[in-house]
Amino acid sequence: VDGIELVSDGQLTTCTHLPYEPFQFREGEEIVGFDVDLVDLVAEDLGVEQAIVDTPFDTIQSGADLDTGKCDVAAAGMTINDVREENIDFADPYFDASQALLVAADSDIEGEADLAGLRVAVQTGTTGQEWARENLPDSELVTFEDLALLTAYVQNGEVDAGINDNGVLYDFAGDNPDVAVVAEFDTGEQYGVAVRTGNDALRERINEVLAAAREDGRYDEIYEKWFGT
Ligand code: GLN
């Protein structure tokens, strides 16, 4: 389509790392979420269907999945940063995020200062892990492969707290009254959909679709669907 070559004919293949609710997660047989709806707009614009591949977050951000042609795009609630820009190309930002702190609802922990000497869960390869390494030198960081494990360990009390992006943690706490988000750390992050380095045709098309969706209300509809009250 218009100088855009897709790795599989007739479909836009998206790499993601499940689950990252409400950005991408399984609902029955289906994979749904904010990122899924957003990339669907790109697929629709290209006249193809989106096909989603679940893959480790590390091979998404390292560029391996995009470089080997596993996927056309990566959409994984992934923060745009300089290190990743060396390996993949990001389209324009589509979502603002910061880090946040999840604890048991009956915990006394109120913020960063209370975490010294405690076990704090982080997710491998994420900006949250990086933030915790820099800012919590006196905590024992316990690393999990995905968000579902991290939140489960906060719930069952095997860790004292968990660090992850504010959007996913508020969503989880909203569904689970036994935990609460008690602090946010203003890391000023922005999510971007990524393409293989140099795939400007696809990156520019994503930017056009995103701009149009922000303009005509489709972006707001998707936002409301996943984050509205
Ligand atoms: N936004 C965070 C990052 O980019 C977490 C993303 C994720 O776990 N899917 O590292």
Largest sheet geometry: 5 strands, mixed
List the domain count as a whole number.
Answer: 2
Count of β-strands: 12
Write out the CATH superfamily name of the largest domain.
Answer: Periplasmic binding protein-like II
Query: What ligands can be seen in this structure?
Result: glutamine
Per CATH, the architecture of the largest domain is: 3-Layer(aba) Sandwich
Helix content: 25-40%
Mean pLDDT over the full residue set? 97
Q: CATH topology of the largest domain, anyone? A: D-Maltodextrin-Binding Protein, domain 2
Task: Give keywords.
about 30% strand, about 35% helix, alpha/beta, D-Maltodextrin-Binding Protein, domain 2, binds glutamine
